[in-house]
Specification:
alpha/beta, Spore Coat Polysaccharide Biosynthesis Protein SpsA, Chain A, seven-stranded mixed sheet, 8 helices, 7 strands
Length: 215
């Protein structure tokens, strides 16, 4: 599939990752969110099958990181939560006549460029819907819609199976791809420990940061 645009929604880093507040300070959580985003952007920038990268944010640090990795910064729906930001990027891509949207969050620092290319390579001709579940099969850690609004998206803690149903309701049989890097998002203290202990061990900015934090 060609003309696939990555779409990354990024909330303000202030107050980020509040569910890890029992083990990380507010300053540590902000740095963690920015570092994870940089790992994700580096993987996207290294992928060969993407036409481009969008980052939807009003956070100046996130915008600066996005521009450093060649991403376009947009703000359509940026204040409307994760789902609103993704839908905002879909509207941008539709208005530009783009072929597909691949959305993924900024908190999957084990993602690799090869995994990004694997998703794009697994996508069927439009209309199609490709999804990578979280490791617990609750969240939707990557979703490719071709065209960008082929399936109504609604993200949350338990969105994977609802997204499968939404695709089928739209007349599209979903393609499910399981990828370990994308599957491990970081929201809870247990996720931090799983990330640090994940094998094979991959040197990432996030891993180095957590080791400095004493993990």
């Amino acid at each position: 599939m060609t003309d696939v645009w990555a779409a990354v929604p990024v909330k303000s880093f202030t107050g980020a990752k509040s569910r890890t507040s029992s083990i990380l300070t507010p300053a540590q959580r902000e740095v963690l969110a920015a570092t994870m985003l940089e790992d994700v952007l580096a993987a996207l920038a290294g992928a060969r099958r993407l036409a481009g990268i969008l980052v939807n944010t009003i956070d100046p640090t996130a915008a600066g990181l996005a521009e450093r990795y060649g991403a376009r910064v947009v703000t359509e729906g940026a204040l409307d939560g994760h789902t609103g930001a993704v839908n905002g990027m879909a509207r941008v891509l539709i208005a530009e006549g783009r072929g597909a949207l691949l959305t993924l969050p900024g908190d999957i620092p084990r993602v690799t460029s090869a995994e990004i290319d694997a998703i794009v390579g697994s996508a069927l001709a439009a209309p199609s819907f490709t999804i990578v579940p979280a490791h617990d099969e609750l969240g939707s850690n990557a979703v490719l819609c071709a065209p960008p609004a082929s399936v109504k998206l609604r993200f949350g803690d338990d969105s994977y199976f609802p997204h499968l149903m939404a695709a089928r309701a739209a007349g599209v049989e979903p393609t499910v791809v399981r990828l370990p890097g994308i599957g491990l998002d970081i929201d809870h203290p247990a996720d931090l420990r799983a990330f640090v202990n994940a094998k094979p061990r991959r040197p990432t900015r996030t891993l180095a940061l957590l080791e400095r934090f004493g993990f």
